[in-house]
Amino acid sequence: MQTKQKQGLSIQYQDNTFEVVLDGRKILEHTPTSPCLFVGQGEEKIEMYRGNYEIEDYVVERFGLKSFEVMHESEQGFRVDFKRTSMDSETLSVAFSYENQNLKLDFSGDRKSFNRFWVRIAADSTEKVYGCGEQMSHLNLRGKHFPLWTSEPGVGRNKKTYTTFLADLHDQAGGDYYHTNYPQPTFLSSKKYFCHVDTTAYADFDFRKDHYHELQVWEVPSQIMFETGASIKELVSRLTHHLGRQPELPEWTYDGIWLGMQGGTDEVQKKIDAARDKGMKVGAVWAQDWQGKRVTSFGRRLNWNWQWDENEYPELDQKLKEWKEQGIRFLGYINPYLILDGELYKEAAENHYFVLNQQDDVYLVDFGEFDCGIVDLTNPAAFEWYKGVIQKYMIDFGLDGWMADFGEYLPTDAKLHNGEPAMLMHNAWPMLWAKVNFEAVDEAGKTDEIVYFMRAGYTGSQKYCRLLWAGDQSVNWDLDDGIASVIPAALSAGLVGNGLHHSDIGGYTSLHGNKRSKELLLRWVELAAFTPVMRSHEGNRPTDSHQYDHDEDTMNAFIRMTDVHVTLAPYLKDLVKENTEKGIPVQRPLFMEFEDDAQTYDLQYQYMLGDDVLVAPVYEEAASQWNVYLPNETWVHLWSGEEFDGGHVEVSAPIGQPPVFYRKGSGYADLFGKIREKYTPAE
């Protein structure tokens, strides 16, 4: 047995076997019968319908690179050459370089000869795995595989539910557990290392085997990176050091709820007055139809031409100033597409700023009964122009933020300005879209004043996406697509570097008989109070959904939970600052704070809000009691002040009092006590 050691990196090899160990963790294991690398050729078939993708792959050939030779050494590491057999002429070279707990595998040689690649990462049967972007059905990914391709997440997202069946039947839109707006080829292990693959190609990370994780990529990647940490917190901090971190949120974001409303200037003014007269703290209004509306069979949609609609919103330019003087910001909406009959479409078409089809015409995409062009963000001139659209028609107009929606709809047969295959740019598109928004705000000098929020993402979104939102949940109690799904979504996104997350209060999608109930809306606003941002949404069919102002009881609940959220502002600001400085997310899985507690590693519907607050949202209908797991410390129930010493406890959870606990002795105990004093009735 020969050994080569470079600080925390070692390779032990003899005959046809070797293993690579990183800081005491076995990362790769290779034998002739189970090689660690495979390459091959595949032929894919991909069809898109309104952002939903049907992907089939025929693997023409797959073969293991069984032969290897340890070659050149450097100060940082060594090189290993892999071949199918020792007699083969094609070589895939891997340079292993180590520095400060970081291991990089750089691939060279015959990379372009193959369009399928598999690597097996050493594992053990007790290991837990997390990440892969924003995952809404599973926090611990072990036991399943996860295709990584940005898309619509689906309506229902579970092939066993009736909603999913109907969505598939009518619109090919049901989705499955792995569908997400925000995939990312990154995972974290309970063995305290992360693995990140530098690729934008389609990938499928398979965690179903006991002794290895098999990562499939539809190209030989340029690099795979591993890094270890002494704790999960340190690991996430190290990951975000590489991928980027979000700036702090503007000060005004903590002033109150962001109320979603639409319908024109008079309607917005009426709703603002009614909410404030009742005592609601309104930090912003979010009017997604500021540029006009478009009604389809799906529901109330928008006019995708990003200019103020003076007919729908008369005198909006003056109202923005009035509302701002009253402490209310105005938020709008934009996405990276332009509707065929809009003025901006004409300008983009004249300047050749659109993605093209194979006939070199503008590639028109069906977004649900209307067609749009896709601004080609690989074209520097188009990129700058669209940045200018944001600056001129939104920032200069006076908007304080917006939903930067979509980013998932790049067809794989499109032709791009940069000449790259759309198959390789599809996953990169959300990052480019985030970058457009980031640079527009940054160059305007408004980073401390403006915030935009996004649902789509990929590697690099950490730096360019100011605030993530969980996308379009169904307005129901389903685990995979209802209120519960936003919890693992926030936790998984935070683990890969997007530490600022929120969701549409009440959900969004009303289809196939789903209508938002009063109880669901009340439970959702409770959850939102214990996240970085509270923002409501009327949904795609507002008249089918219970709204915050439909009755006095609901209005009072929104007033109460908004006040709780505003009271928490000093705590939330400190957490957001920590996310900016260290990359530690605001919402955290329990195991991030309690690594020695084995039970915390599979809890996906509870979370820590920072170091001190444990939140266990109620996500089942008609529940008045709730079972909570508390790690072995002394916890104070937020509403009653009762103390618990840990373990499984059942607490009363009436609407208005979600199960929330804080650590006894917390430095913020007085702050939390203010909530109890104000909102817990005297006996």
Can you offer a commentary on this structure?
There is one protein chain. The model has no long low-confidence stretch (mean pLDDT 97). A hairpin with a 3-residue loop joins strand 7 and strand 8. The protein starts with a strand and ends with a helix. It has 15 helices and 40 strands. The longest helix has 16 residues, at 380-395. The strands form nine sheets. It has an eight-stranded antiparallel sheet with strand order 7-8-9-10-18-15-14-12. Helix 6 packs across helix 8 (429-443). The chain is globular. Among the domains are: 2-243, Sandwich (Immunoglobulin-like); 590-679, Golgi alpha-mannosidase II (Immunoglobulin-like). Helices cover 23% and strands 30% of the residues. With 683 residues, the chain is α+β, with helices and mostly antiparallel strands. Belongs to the glycosyl hydrolase 31 family. Pfam families: Gal_mutarotas_2, Glyco_hydro_31_2nd, Glyco_hydro_31_3rd. Keywords: Glycosidase, Hydrolase. This is Alpha-glucosidase. One of its GO terms (biological process) is carbohydrate metabolic process.
Question: Secondary structure elements and their pairing?
Answer:
Layout: E1 2-6, E2 9-14, E3 17-22, E4 25-30, E5 37-49, E6 52-64, E7 67-73, E8 77-83, E9 92-99, E10 102-109, E11 116-122, E12 129-133, E13 145-148, H1 162-171, E14 183-189, E15 193-198, E16 203-206, E17 212-217, E18 223-228, H2 232-243, E19 257-260, H3 265-277, E20 282-286, E21 293-296, E22 299-302, H4 316-325, E23 329-334, E24 337-339, H5 343-350, E25 364-366, E26 371-374, H6 380-395, E27 401-404, H7 422-425, H8 429-443, E28 451-454, H9 461-464, E29 467-469, H10 486-495, E30 501-502, E31 504-505, H11 518-529, E32 535-536, H12 552-567, H13 569-582, E33 587-588, H14 590-593, E34 607-609, E35 613-615, E36 625-630, E37 635-637, E38 643-644, E39 647-652, E40 660-663, H15 669-679
Parallel strand pairs: 19-20, 20-23, 23-27, 27-28, 28-29, 29-30, 31-32
Antiparallel strand pairs: 1-2, 2-3, 3-4, 5-6, 5-11, 7-8, 8-9, 9-10, 10-18, 11-17, 12-14, 13-16, 14-15, 15-18, 16-17, 21-22, 24-26, 25-26, 33-34, 34-35, 35-40, 36-39, 37-38, 37-40
